[in-house]
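Bumping with the actual sequence this time:
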Amino acid sequence: MKDFDYLKKGDVYLDAACQSLRPRCVIDALDKYYTEHNSCGERVKYKWGVETDEKVEETRELVLKYVGLKSKKYTVSFTLNTTYGINLILSQLKGDLFSKVMTSEIEHNSPFLATIAFSKRTGLLREVMKREDDGSINISDYDFKNAVVVVNCAANFDGRKLSNIKELVKAVHKAGGIIIIDAAQAMAHSADIVNGVEADAICFSAHKMYAPSLGVIVWQDSLMDKMEQGFLGGGMVDDVKLDSYLLSAEGKEHRYTRFEAGLQAWGEIVGLGAAIKWLNKMPKSTWKNFESSYRELYDYLSGSDKVHFVNKEANPTMSFYIDGLDSHLLGAALSRENIMARTGYFCAHYYLDHVLGLPPLVRFSLGLQNTPDQIAKVKKVMDNIL
């Protein structure tokens, strides 16, 4: 694919669930920021800063359109990554407004550990919900009264989606709770699952959707009423006195600064805008070819009795182990063939190790850079291994 023309011949990158490769247009946008308008956004009046401000604002608008939410009700703030965003919210929530915190068994360590910390800080009960094979949560099994719910909408080891996400959000809100969605694994290839979903916050990582390393929080404005601001710094205030300060986010115009203490990664934000434009222009034929590639690889591996999948169905992200073969050694063997894949528990230790009791796994996570020739190479190498 011409957008990834910098890849060396023979290199096969299968770790998009960790961070995707960046298309040439995103690299160019980042380079342009550093060479043509490198400046501090929202702080300067010279023309470089004006251009940076315009592009950053454009990215905020692109993010909202990408998830199908309106600026009248939602705000976009930029952070370090998904983990940072989830922790930033939970660390400032007023614990006395809630009865408990809830997460699910198939979470990345990001929400799993953050909900443990929130429970310890507030003294609130923590409940871990079961997820079905299709990724759904059996809503009737749980009481969401005044709960803080933090769950993913796509798992990072098998890609299973929260298939009843809209029903869950409705049930949580009806019970007086709030819900934070970890959308890190959905934004690149299945962002439709969060489109128009009115969660209290949606957190994701730009670097998993072909953009530079960056975190994003799309949050409902009413969420701020349930928070006590405790993470403060430059860029957030209009005035500071000896023992007091005036936040610049009192009005809607600068509300995003509530989660943006200090200087932001302006170039990376510009790069995210370029990535969203690139994804929006992707032809249907490319998506069809992408689906054919991951299904071909999944079907091939499923044909061996030695291969044991976590997946119940084909997905761009697939995790497995092979009878009698250490997954870490397999990862090293693949690396010698210039095939880059992740091994281990992929920051989902609780579910993969302690619930399922699986050995360390191999994860193939495909991206739009993967070509038919690359899939053929992976199959050939795996033939020799199997």
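The tokens above came from a reply further down the thread. Residues 47-67 form the longest helix (21 residues).
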